[in-house]
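Researcher: Here's the sequence for the chain we discussed earlier.
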Amino acid sequence: MAHAIVIGSGIAGIASALRLRKKGYEVTVMEANPYPGGKLHAMEKKGYRFDLGPSLFTMPHLVTELFELFDVKPEPYFSYFQKETVCNYFWNDGTRFTVNSNMDTFVKDACKAFGTSQKSLRHYLKQNRRKYELTAPLFLEKSLHKVSSYISKDTIKAISQIGKLDINTSLDEVNKTYFEHPKLVQLFNRYATYNGSSPFKTPGIMSMIPHLEMHYGTYFPKGGMHTIAMSLYHLAISQDVRFSFDSKVDRINVAQGKVNGVESASGFHKADLVVSNMDIYPTYKNLLQGQKQPGRVLQQERSSSALIFYWGISRNFPELDLHNIFFSTSYSREFKAIFQERTLCEDPTVYINITSKEEPSDAPEGHENWFVMINAPGDYGQDWDSLKRKARHWIIQKLSARLQVNLESLITVEHVLDPVGIASSTSSYRGALYGAASNSKFAAFLRHPNFTSSIKNLLFCGGSVHPGGGIPLCLLSAKIVGDLAPKPLNHA
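Model: Thanks. This is the structure I predict for it:
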């Protein structure tokens, strides 16, 4: 039987393994870490459980369809429910706004809070949906780098309406054409961070991102985000996918322009097909030394990283929910610091995720588990010890003032993850969360494709390649890999 090796067990790697298994391959996943899941990992500390990585769950059908591939009901492995509150927003001047999952309620609430017209807001949301519907079949669901992707009615339709996609203006400029209130502009500018970019640089087409959250909804997976990866891991095990942990791949072997296997400390492992779920930069620099390097792709600006404080908090905060944002006073100053100065802003936007709101067992009774994150530049050799100390002070000062507490006195447990730690634990170049940034209109086309024309039977998945980062796009990258993989000759 034809054998496929998947390098890395991030969510895209596991999903690719499942799709290749369904296609008829024997599949082995080789993982450098002693656990599956990549960034979707978890930690327990003194009675608190923390999801270490992604904290937002949208488009759950992309997970459940992997179970449906094998006619398996997801429920024994995986279950989730939709959140009524999408996110709570807080500003330094005391303003607070809650986004409701019901679109009509959100529109009414936003128009009342920010003094905009329902007509303008509904038109904006309608245009966001239109952008998504026009571009998803090409930009998200197929390989951008195959001629066949462009020979379709969907593509012709999208190209004919390219003027409506706002690719020549920034997201910030688009939002300002619709809304006068700076807080509403900032609320919608925030969606640039969903792919690690700046709203002042990323093209206006990215206003389709709030459509994904507001139209499809936000969800909570029972057991926390880590269960998404673990449920797919257990499904893969049940379908005879093999996992080899503590198995760092050192080289992808190529002979006469075709992959024939990989090398690790334990020797040579033959394969008819290899899929790399590793960040594209170390894939080429470390695993494909001697092969043609896609210089322009590898030199792309990296996405933002993150600085995350995992805090056990010794009281409950009823005013907070699962997702909470405390905005900076100046978004432009914050993003200039991240992308131009490669440092942190003294007044950062702070995101707090609290899973104990939905899973009380994630924290001791009367306590909460706080995942406190700020956007950060990638690792370019900054003094992270100094930056972490400063950021901790700024964050505690900001949250204490807004929540009217002495937050420092409530912290019982602390763990910190910085861009250096993200890079070392996930092989993400410079600790970038989403591979390349989307700070230009050409970024989508400059992302590395899910294949390479110079090496046969080598495919790529995950957040650093097409179509991009985040759980939904990683799962879509696996779907593209499944479509691109040749059918095994021995499979009927």
